[in-house]
Every structure is written in structure tokens, then in C-alpha cells.
What we know:
Elements: E1 16-20, E2 29-33, E3 41-44, H1 57-60, E4 76-78, E5 84-86, H2 89-107, E6 112-116, H3 122-136, E7 141-143, H4 150-160, E8 178-182, H5 186-189, H6 194-202, E9 206-210, H7 216-219, E10 223-225, H8 232-245, H9 251-257, E11 258-259, H10 261-268, H11 273-280, H12 284-295, E12 300-304, H13 306-309, H14 314-327, E13 337-340, E14 359-360, E15 364-365, H15 369-379, H16 393-398, E16 408-412, H17 416-419, H18 423-431, E17 435-440, E18 452-455, E19 464-467, E20 472-476, H19 489-499, H20 511-522, H21 534-540, E21 543-544, E22 570-571, E23 590-595, H22 611-616, E24 621-624, H23 626-632, E25 639-643, E26 648-655, E27 663-667, E28 681-684, E29 691-692, E30 696-704
Parallel strand pairs: 6-7, 6-16, 8-9, 8-12, 9-10, 11-22, 12-13, 16-17, 17-18, 23-27, 24-26
Antiparallel strand pairs: 1-2, 2-3, 4-5, 4-18, 14-15, 19-20, 20-21, 23-30, 25-26, 25-30, 28-29
Helix pairs in contact: 2-19, 3-19, 3-20, 4-14, 8-11, 8-12, 8-14, 15-20
Bound molecules: ligand MGD (2 copies), iron/sulfur cluster (SF4) and molybdenum atom.
The site of iron/sulfur cluster has 14 residues, from helix 1.
Amino acid sequence: MSFALPQLDAPPTTTSTRTHCPYCAFQCGTVLTGDNALSLKIEGDAEFPVNAGRLCVKGWSAAELLGHPDRLLKPLVRGAFGELLPASWPVALDRIADAFRRIQAEHGLDAVGLFGSGALTNEKAYLLGKFARVTLRTPHMDYNGRYCMSSAAGAGNKAFGIDRGLPFPVSDIALSRTLFVVGSNPFDTLPPIAQWFEKQRTNGGRLIVADPRRTPTARSADLHLQLTPGSDLALANGLLFIAIEEKLVDAEFISSRTNGFDAVRRTVLQYYPARVEQMTGVSESALRQTVRWLAESGPSMILTGRGPEQQSKGVDSVLGFINLTLALGLPGKPGAGFGTLTGQGNGQGGREHGQKADQLPGYRLIEVDAHREHVARVWGVDPASLPRKGRSAYELLDSCGQPNGIRGLLVMGSNVAVASPHSGSVIERLKSLDFLAVCDSFANETAELADVVLPVKQWAEEDGTMTNLEGRVIRRRKAMASPPGVKSDLDIIRELANRLGHAEKFTFASTEAVFDELRLATAGGTADYAGISYDRIDREDGVFWPCPSEDHPGTPRLFGERFHHADGKAKFHVIEHRPAGEEPDAEFPLYFTTGRYQEHYNSGAQTRRVAKLSGAKPIPRLQLHPELATLLGIENDWFVTVESRRGRVEFKVEVSIGIRPDTLFAPFHWGGRHAANLLTNPALDPTSRMPEFKLAAVRVVAVREPDFSAPEVSA
Ligand SMILES: Nc1nc2c(c(=O)[nH]1)N[C@H]1C(S)=C(S)[C@@H](COP(=O)(O)OP(=O)(O)OC[C@H]3O[C@@H](n4cnc5c(=O)[nH]c(N)nc54)[C@H](O)[C@@H]3O)O[C@H]1N2
Ligand SMILES: Nc1nc2c(c(=O)[nH]1)N[C@H]1C(S)=C(S)[C@@H](COP(=O)(O)OP(=O)(O)OC[C@H]3O[C@@H](n4cnc5c(=O)[nH]c(N)nc54)[C@H](O)[C@@H]3O)O[C@H]1N2
Ligand code: SF4
Ligand SMILES: [Mo]
């Protein structure tokens, strides 16, 4: 049955290539010179308007991974004695196709699952979704964006009728008079964004940051609201109370452009300042100052990050801040409104083209008949043959090996064994699968558990499109040939579809041809890419969706005239504070929250391998306040064992005044014994199914002095 398909990417034709960084949603423009891994030089692209030449330390060092000695250059297949052994491509691909065919024959179509990624290009996300729905016909396909943008997406859809992270270009930040950043630390997570904050400051603007930690971003703020973890929703309602009380709301905007304010006004009456001060730990005077600055004449902007979003009330927390921006009449004006800072490289595009368990391309919904019909027509299949809505990311993983759960899984672009909440349990579930396949460039902690690992091309070796945090669709351009022995994700999907009897649905002459089919599939949808072509992206330095036709200019700024609900109005939502899935108590008295270092990226599978980055941050450090250190009888550089109801981890301590005394913080970039996610709580938001990465109750169970005679062991 198997035969080799021609590979989609043509050889590179030039030694200087404009493309984009492989990592985060800022998608900095880069210029690559050289045409092989050893000589490749990365520079910031001064012409690309988003980063204007700047890069962060991860972007500068990204080339090191291309020729890295750890890079997988051959497929690996689990041998008879349990070890992963090199194998040929036909053997490895046959192994996956045979396993999926057998599992589906024995246990039904639903027994196979797919797990995708916001790191994948639009073309890959689209084709993987098509493979799930047309070839495997399983409902169970989800992706790591569920862990990332799903709460912001849920809130945007509810309030505005559309989910585009920033409804305006990043450059709008510089135009805002007051900028309020809630639970994001972009000076570490999107560092070149600092230039837009600097311009805003030069223009006389102010910055307010809400974060339990005094981060580099918070340190540069005019006002830092050092709130209790999980209290964002109460904070938002409390700010709206003050706006109403002080008559700072925009009555004209509320009546002409929104629905639902009256019910919200009645609810927020309960959120009077003294109560909110007690719930959030933010003083009444700081609450009043925040509202007055936001309402002062001149445009104001509120941006959220993962802090308020990665909670079991993440959607409602974001809706709270949207309510506030609507009441103040901010959206739709240059330099003003609400936005959320997307995280992964293609976190935006990755959630538009059908990787989500409830979605089809173009942000269509898999449960809506008209949407099913449109996409089925493009794919040339019967709409009734498309599966229905499947399980969300954590639920999908949690069902692995369980009765009626997933028995065969393919993971493309996520290190779920490190990135998932309650990771100790997720690892056990992965081990209980009949069959696990992983496509990656590195044998990460998830690949170590796999039956087959397929080595893939990296960013500089392939073409495609990405959609950045502004909704700007940009080109990833090939700069060099890939090592022999690796394949692109697109070729892998096509080879598997071919083996499973669907070659004719996956015949594409190029990556661009995949994009052209994506354009048809998204035409008329919310995320309409129909008018975007590779040529246009090249000419225009990116095109903003929605862009329904070739003569449409694209849409850099949304909401100027109308919102995307049928009546053109935005919706207020009544929301009430509720406790987290788990609050500190006598047994587990401390808050534990998680986040990021500038030097490492997500599960660390890539950046832990870059010498300069792992040199700067070899291990995770547990950040805790000096008062707590005194209470525990520990000092900087000591070791502590932290325990939650789900697991325990030993951390080296970093005593710092930059955190609340009731809260511990650790980054999640490491696996094994350093894995923060052994502690986190998989309580899920009811709408977005986002896990509660930002809040677990923990206790310190042991402390140990450092042994200066032993060398420090890194992860
Ligand atoms: N260096 C680096 N950059 C990255 C990434 C990376 O791993 N490393 N990943 C990319 C991705 S995928 C993403 S999603 C983004 C994430 O970007 P951010 O949202 O900026 O990142 P986080 O560090 O997860 O969380 C932000 C802040 O939330 C705070 N926080 C914790 N609990 C709460 C709370 O209850 N309320 C509030 N208001 N704040 C709280 C934390 O202290 C932290 O400073 O970064 C992207 N960029
Ligand atoms: N405790 C805690 N946990 C968290 C978070 C948190 O704040 N706290 N944040 C969550 C968030 S926001 C996110 S986005 C997730 C991210 O966490 P993960 O989903 O693990 O994502 P990454 O570590 O970025 O990358 C995963 C793998 O994809 C591979 N990869 C990169 N590009 C490609 C590609 O094009 N094709 C293929 N096949 N592979 C590729 C990389 O080599 C890497 O091994 O973690 C989540 N987990
Ligand atoms: S900010 Fe993001 S896109 Fe830019 S260089 Fe750093 S990791 Fe890459
Ligand atoms: Mo993310």
C-alpha cells in the first residue's frame, strides 16, 4: 500500500531570506543569511513593522537547534525489548497506519485521537484537522491552544462575536493614554513589544499592571495592583462598580453599541470597594486610581494574558475586563479597547482552522449544519460523515487507556507530558495507551513514551503561513534544505492519509496549494482568509483577516462600526466571583502559580537544548517572599519540597521581594523531578475547558540546605 509521495517544499533559491522567528506569537521578522545550519545567521528584520528589527534572546539563538546533535534524523520505532530503534520511513509510517486501522476496527472510530499545536503553520493545522475528520473520522482532535488561548477565545466570542486576540495592530499600544495589562508579563514573554510601551510612555501614556508578582513589566508600571491569585474577576467587577459610582461610564456608547448593561449594573452593586479590597488585596485608593486613569479623556486599553485566563473561571474573568472596556466606551477607537496577548507562534491561526474539538476551518463550528455543509463541500465528502464535537485537550488525554477512551494517539507539536496539568497522571495515561506516535524534531518527554517517533523539518526548512497576535497572516519562508531523513509535517499527514486510503483528498502540488484549499474552506466564515494569497502577503508584509476577497484590503482594526454579533452590538455578561477549583486551607496553606522565564519556551523541549539559554537558566527556581522564607526557616539557594494534593516537587529557592508573601511561583519549562505541572490542578473552565494552571493550593513539606561540596545538577 505504501509509496513515497514527492515532498512539498522546493529547494531554496536564495541565501538571504526574510522569514519569522519559530517561537512566540510576536512572530518577529528575521533575515536569515547562509543556507546551512552551521553558517546560518539570524538578524532582526528592520522592515517588518511589528518588531522593527528587535529580537529577544530566544530568537537570536534559534539557529542552534537546526544543526543540534540531539536533533532526530531518523524515525524511531519501539523494538521488542522496549527500546526506541531507528527505522525506515515506510516501516514507521506503516506502523502508525496499521495501529490506527486495527484500533479503529476493534474499538470504533472514536478510539483514535489527535493532539495538535499552536506551533503548527496554518497549512499544517488545516491539513491535520482534515485528516482527523475525513480520514480517521474521529471527533477527538484537540490541541495545546486549549491550554493557552481558549478562555480569551471563549470570552471574545461571547462578548464580541469574534475571537481575534488583538483587534488592532500592536502599534496601537503607543497611542493609548492609559494601558492596563492584566496577568501578562510581556517584557519577558514578548520582549520586543517593549518598544511600543516605550513609545506610549514617551507620548505621555501611563501603565498599570495587575499581577501577584512584581515582574519586570510590573516594575516599569505607574501602578502595580499586586492582587491575590484568582481574584481577577472580583477586581474587574470592583472597577466597574467604581466607574458606575463615579459616573465615568459612557452612556451613549452603552446604549448605541451594546446589549445587557442593566443586568450587569445590578450585579456589580455587590462589588463595593471595601469588599473588593478584601477579596483582591488591592487597596481602595489603587482601585479608584485605576478607574480614573482608564476613564480619563484619551484612549485607554486593557490587555489580558494567561494570568486571569488560565483559571477555572478564566472565561468569566476575561468577560469582567471586557465589561469594563464596554462600559467605558473604549472598543473600536484607535489606541483603545480590549485585547488579549496571544502566546504561541501560530496561536491565533492554530485556533481558526479546525484543530479544536468543536471547530472546522474559518472558525466554523462543527455542530452547526450550515458550517458542516460548507466544509464538507470543499472536502468533497458527505456532511453527515463528519464527526461531531470531541473531547477537549485535558479530557482527551485523561481518557487515554480508560474504558471508551482513546487507545491510539498522534501528537504533533506539543510536549503534553510536561505541559499538561496534573502531569503525573497524564504520563500514566499516556503509558496506558495501546499506541502513541509523536512527530517532533527532538525526543522530548512525550516522545520518550511513544511507540513511533517521526522526525520533522524545522521552521527554516519549510514554507507556510502563520497568523501573529494581531491577526496578521505572514509567510514562513524556507531558507535552507533540511537534513536528509526528515520530512515535513504536511508530508507525514499526506503519507498517512495515503496509507489509510485517502490519497485523492490529499493531493497537493505545494504548500501554497494547501493554503489555497484553506482559503476556500474559510470563505464566508468568521476567520475568512479567501482574499489572502502568498503573493499578497509578500507584497503587503502580511494581510489581516477577515479578508473575504482579493480586492479587500484586509482588516487591521475591528469594531470601528460594528461588533460581530448579528445585530452588530457587543454583549455585556453578568459574572459573579467564585472560588478557584482549590483554595488554600489549613492543610495546603499557600498559593502556587506558574509562568515563564524569558530564556525558556513552554515545555522547554527546544530551549533547554540551547547552550546560552540553559546556561542562563539551568533549573527552575521557586520564587518566594522573604517573610515566608523567615517563617519556613529557609534562605536563598536552599532547597524545598513542595506538595499539592497531586504530587511533590523539589525546587531550589529564590527569595525575592517580587512576589506576595502568600504565593509561590515556579516556571513550567522543565519535566521530570523539576516539573511544576506535577502540582497543578486540572480543574477546567466550564466553557473553555481551560485548566487552572495559575492556581493550586500547596504546602512546603521539607527544607534542605545547599550542599556546596556537590556540583549543581541541571535538568
Ligand atoms: N520567554 C517566553 N516567552 C513566551 C513563552 C515562553 O514560554 N517563554 N510562551 C509563549 C506563550 S505560548 C504564551 S501563552 C505567552 C504567555 O505570556 P504571559 O501571559 O505573559 O505569561 P505567563 O508567565 O504565563 O503569565 C503572566 C503572568 O501572570 C501572573 N499571574 C499568575 N497568577 C495570576 C492571577 O491569578 N491573576 C493575574 N492577574 N496574574 C497572575 C504571573 O505572575 C505572570 O507574571 O508567552 C509566549 N511567550
Ligand atoms: N503550569 C503551566 N503549564 C502550562 C502553562 C502555564 O502557564 N503553566 N502554559 C500552557 C500554554 S499557554 C501552552 S501554549 C502550553 C505549551 O506547551 P507545549 O504544548 O508542550 O508546547 P512547546 O513546548 O512549545 O512545544 C512542544 C513541542 O513541539 C515541537 N514543535 C515545534 N514546532 C513544531 C512543528 O512545526 N511540528 C512539530 N511536529 N513539532 C513542532 C517542539 O520541538 C516541542 O517538542 O503549555 C501549557 N502549560
Ligand atoms: S519575542 Fe517571540 S518571536 Fe520575537 S524573537 Fe522572541 S521568541 Fe521570537
Ligand atoms: Mo501559550
